[in-house]
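hiii, so i know i said id send this last week but things got crazy w the move. better late than never?? heres the sequnce for the chain we talked about at the cafe, plus the structure i predicted for it. fair warning i was half asleep when i ran it
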Amino acid sequence: MDSHAAVARLNRQLPLKARQAQLSPVLKKLHQAILRGFIEHGRVPTGPELDSVMEGEALEAGLRKLGEADLIVLDKAERWPVGAYPLTSEHTAHRITVNGHSLYAMCALDALSVAPMFDETVSISSGCHVNHTPVRIQMQGDAILDARPDDAIVGIRWQMPTAVAAHSMCMEMVFLENRATAENWQNGDTENISLFTLSEAVAFGKGFFLPLMA
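okay and structure toks below
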């Protein structure tokens, strides 16, 4: 599956850009401010940091609306963001370092999408979903500077999200240490499970996430 087909398929299952396009201009600005906050501060922006976009009850209502659209992930009290695809403060298997900050990506595809999405230098520390072999990747923008193992694969088990995508479908977007391990994990189910080289996954992730910042 090429990156264009993969983007189209993921957009059918998790239409983030279409949902963002339905927002008012100020809510879109709020969504993008939350995303940039992760890169600038290594965390979700605080209330005062979002005051230039929205404040008070309007901010609370705006966050609820973004959460209802699953553009952001809210805390258990459903009041404040803990994540905004592709980034999260929740601990996952995919730790990234960007702009001097350590945080997490929601899945393997998300981890590879941060550098091209923000044109940043990113270090990824993850592991093979099957064998737990360490996976380490260095990126600058959409360029992979170093990858160990260099033949690591991104595997995606296609499924519709249940409730919050970060806690359902994202759990089946994983790194696999090599092609043999990936094909064994795929187990011949090419209709429901797709495999991508790292370069293919970067193009896929960039095509899916970069439009959110336009």
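btw The chain has a mean pLDDT of 96. thought thatd interest u
miss u guys!!
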